[in-house]
Amino acid sequence: EIHIKEPIEKEVNPRLLPGELLLCEASTVYKYMQEDGSNRGTYGKLVCTNFKISFLDDDSASDDNEPQFKNKIVGENDITLQCVDQIYGVYDEKKKLLTGQLKKYPEKLIIYCKDLRVFNFCLRYTKEEEVKRIVSGIVHHSQTPKLLKRLFLFSYASAAPNNTDGRNQTVMFETLEDWRDELERTKGNVKYKAVTTNEGYRVSEKLPLYFVVPICISEESILKYEGRGIPIWCWSCHNGAALLKMSAFPKEQDDSTSQMQKAFLDGIYKTISKPPYELLKLDDLSSSLPSLQDIQTAYMRFKQLFLIDNSTDFWATDVKWFSLLESTNWLEIIRRVLKKAIEVAECLEIQHTNVLLIEESATDLCCVISSLVQVMMDSHSRTKSGFQSLIQKEWVIGGHGFLDRCNHLHKSEKEEAPVFLLLLNCVWQLVQQYPPAFEFTETYLTVLSDSLYVPIFSTFFFNSQHQRDTNKSGESIKTQSGPFRFLTVWDWAVQFDPKAQAFLNNPLYAEKPKPDKSQRKTARFKHQRQLSLPLTPAKPSTKRGFFREETDHLIKNILGKRIGKFINSSDEAPNSLREFYDSWHSKPVDYHGLLLPRIDGPEIKVWAQRYLRWIPEAQLHGGGTIATAAKILDLMEEVQTLQVKMDEEHSQAVSGDVHSVPMLRNSARLSSLFPFALLQRQSVKPALPTSTWKDLEDEDDLVKRDDEFVDLSEDML
């Protein structure tokens, strides 16, 4: 039996953006709610445009029930073509991956998204011709390789009016002046200089137009090997030590070339190791951190834990949550990256040593480590505008290959790796460990990760500044000749109105340091679900989260032995680093000084908001961090209302600095899925047969059965 809402009589048309074209559509499509097998849902129209896939029902036409945190570009039933991860068809109850030309069309369509949403559509009641058109259209436009100029980014830029408010405080690092200002801000202008050698991209198309090098480096040196082997400045510490990065020479070279390059490097190292420069420490990230392929493999396994179709799948994986989580290796990679950032911070802060990060292109893990170090050591990078400027400097202008790493054009899966997402996961660890130190919230980081797949902003859709500049200088499709005027993702007003933007700002941000009061202990919130791996079997969590009473025995007897190897790994920090780490954590936290993440065992957690926000079973009713945030925002609104009344009484104008704060629902009605989803149904854990628990008691058996319920890759263990 299928519980349905009657098909809608009135015509519902999609809201199209400038430059957006309707490509195909199908009526009488049934969208399932993410339910527990009851088949509840609603009828509507499924459409595909050159920007998105969208489901329209009768609720789409009304503005009465709009969520408070509404995205103006991408609605809750919209999927941008770049956000589509995989598409499956269901034939006679069997799932099959859909790619290329289809000979037979499915009765159900399942779309898995890169932001971890899952959409289920039933096509049984749709006309056959419409099924063919919509399924082949969706598969073709979201899965087949395309040319860069075919991205919606260009259609939108040529058709949309450029009416942004221009009040964006983010430094874009597109001019020489921006680099000089940054040098002055960090007091690095005594030993380092911004150079114009790459104007016209005569050195390299991979390097930015302007960048900073040590003063002693000559223009000839920069030109000699197209910028390879040249230390490029990232940031200067308060004590004068600097963080540098360098693009390494290819390893496969003939002997004579290799000798010349070695002699060149030795000369560079000697030059920048003499006074006034500090001692130099080299760190080859390709040997000290996981490879991009390892990172991609780990993330592919990890995300499978959250792409859940129904309640049955959720509870089936629940009984072995820890072992599945550990076997992905994603949290261990985050721990290793954070540990590397602490090592670099110790060299800069304690040893007063310059650190030179080396990587083949210096545009992947170099970006992650240099950004993390600056977030940890420079409080400016923990403000919203400072963090955005940091992403511009190290990633966008720094030449991270967003187009390839996100595989926006579906050209090559070999190049794909979630490097930027890895950075956001690491920053989130710091945000949740030290909330008052950050001007932005975890919701800001989640929205930023979603914006990776919204092709109306140029920020995350080019591989380099050269590629962006080259493609920017085309003629607009319809109108006046001239360059495309791309939007930047940092203009949040394009996606959110002022009330929704309030969720991106942290109301508890510590504006000024308070050295007399230690807030470390109060900031150390206990997680409400087991989203991290347990430290020892002797200290089980008092909160039950995913696990009920019957799993306590399982945790003690099975997981204790297995997690041991995660904690006591052979790559423990050397004594000096451990002393630095322990010494810092024994003192009160200065929220405007150095921040070191806690990286021991269960301190590394799963980013719950991003990965669990679409799973109703994982919500905490009336709970989670949103309960606190809702109360604080309510109090802020009350204070601001009183302030307005006082100002009116004194006939004074209201200060323009007062932020608009959203009217929140009673926090008891909210769940931990807010603000991305409102309160959803209660989910009851199904009773497991006793035989299942018996089967699970043996550790080896559990390891063998890791793949039984979740579709993970074969080489998972």
Automatic annotation (TrEMBL):
GO biological process terms on file: phosphatidylinositol dephosphorylation
Keywords associated with the record: Cytoplasm, Sarcoplasmic reticulum
InterPro entries linked: MTMR12-like_C, MTMR12_PTP, Myotubularin, Myotubularin-like_Pase_dom, PH-like_dom_sf, Prot-tyrosine_phosphatase-like
GO cellular component: membrane; sarcomere; sarcoplasmic reticulum
Superkingdom of origin organism: Eukaryota
Alphabetical list of Gene3D superfamilies matching this protein: Pleckstrin-homology domain (PH domain)/Phosphotyrosine-binding domain (PTB)
Subcellular localization(s) per the UniProt record: Cytoplasm, Myofibril, Sarcomere; Sarcoplasmic reticulum
Positions of the Myotubularin phosphatase domain: 173-611
Predominant cellular place of this UniProt entry's protein: cytoplasm
Record's keyword annotation contains Cytoplasm: yes
PANTHER family xref list: MYOTUBULARIN-RELATED (PTHR10807), MYOTUBULARIN-RELATED PROTEIN 12 (PTHR10807:SF37)
Similarity-based family: Belongs to the protein-tyrosine phosphatase family. Non-receptor class myotubularin subfamily.
Protein name: Myotubularin-related protein 12
Source organism per UniProt: Poecile atricapillus (Black-capped chickadee)
